[in-house]
Automatic annotation (TrEMBL):
Topology relative to the membrane: Multi-pass membrane protein
Highest rank taxon of the organism: Bacteria
Keyword terms of this UniProt record: Cell membrane, Membrane, Transmembrane, Transmembrane helix, Transport
Subcellular location: Cell membrane
Protein name: ABC transporter permease
Source species: Tessaracoccus rhinocerotis
A GO BP annotation: transmembrane transport
Predominant localisation class: membrane
ABC transmembrane type-1 domain sequence ranges: 85-265
Length: 281
């Protein structure tokens, strides 16, 4: 690599465009973290406005952005959106909590037992090969209607990334640390709590973050198929009424909720990793 190429590579790395070292591309903190996404969102909004105001796309396919905003304001003001929002969020949170417990237990078993891993892992992969729209009617048949089958569907969606990253985190452990703890007389519980979990925490929590966001998808699909009182139901009502503005308003709310959930889980992930790894008191 020439001197000019090295200089260009360093400049790209400084600007965050491209780096040869993935460890140096972790998200920044503060305004620098959100500025690129904000600029991209403003650019997309500009393209949206240009397409609708310039009559490039019929309103039946892409409504005016200001019409969607007006609908959001009306629904927020009269309480419509809140009435449909909470059932979806509650089902997603319950399902995510179920998935966290199940993925931690199974992830520990798979990572510590080659036999159990050989038995369980194919079924874990199989659970993700079945479409949600095929599972939802079965859950309604087995469990009934209401929030419970929707929460179970959310758990199934969130489970796969959680258990996968848990297994990867445990299998990536430095065996020398585990052996040293073993030689020091630490039992399985002590090694798990004080050595294995803190080191595997970044991978585990990354899967939990992804699972929490995906659980919103499970809730929406569940309300599509099973029925309910959440955002999926409001989306169905708007779709059947050919209300494109309403459909886009619901999609904006779903995206906003997913973004808020990701931000909360990401902040909790950062704090938890630092505490588990002893970086704070």
């Amino acid at each position: 690599m020439s001197t000019k190429e090295r200089s260009r590579a360093r400049e790209f790395a400084r600007l965050g465009v491209w780096s040869a070292y993935p460890a140096r591309t972790r998200p920044a903190h503060g305004p620098e973290r959100w500025l690129p996404a904000t600029v991209a969102a403003v650019a997309l909004l500009g393209v949206w406005l240009a397409a609708t105001r310039g009559d490039l796309v019929p309103d039946a396919f892409l409504p005016d952005a200001f019409a969607v905003w007006d609908r959001l304001v009306v629904w927020t003001g009269n309480g419509t959106i809140w009435r449909y929002l909470w059932p979806t969020v509650v089902a997603a949170l319950i399902g995510s909590a179920i998935a966290v417990v199940a993925s931690l237990v199974l992830g520990i078993l798979i990572a510590h037992s080659r036999l159990l891993g050989a038995v369980i892992e194919p079924f874990v992969a199989f659970s993700q090969a079945i479409p949600l729209v095929a599972i939802a009617p079965l859950l309604a048949l087995w469990i009934g209607y209401g929030m419970v089958p929707i929460a179970v569907l959310c758990a199934l969606v969130a489970f796969f990334p959680m258990v996968t990253t848990t297994v990867v985190g445990f299998r990536s452990l430095d065996m020398r640390m585990v052996e040293n703890a073993w030689l020091d007389g630490a039992g399985f519980r002590a090694r798990l709590w004080h050595v294995e979990l803190p080191v595997a925490a970044p991978a585990i929590l990354a899967g939990i973050r992804a699972g929490f966001v995906l659980s919103m998808t499970g809730a929406i699909v569940g309300e599509f198929v099973i029925g309910g009182a959440g955002l999926g139901t409001l989306l169905t009502i708007s779709r059947e009424a050919t209300d494109t503005v309403g459909v886009f308003a619901v999609l904006v709310w779903i995206a906003a909720v997913a973004l808020v959930l990701q931000g909360i889980i990401q902040a909790a992930e950062h704090i938890s990793v630092r505490r588990l790894q002893g970086e704070t008191t």
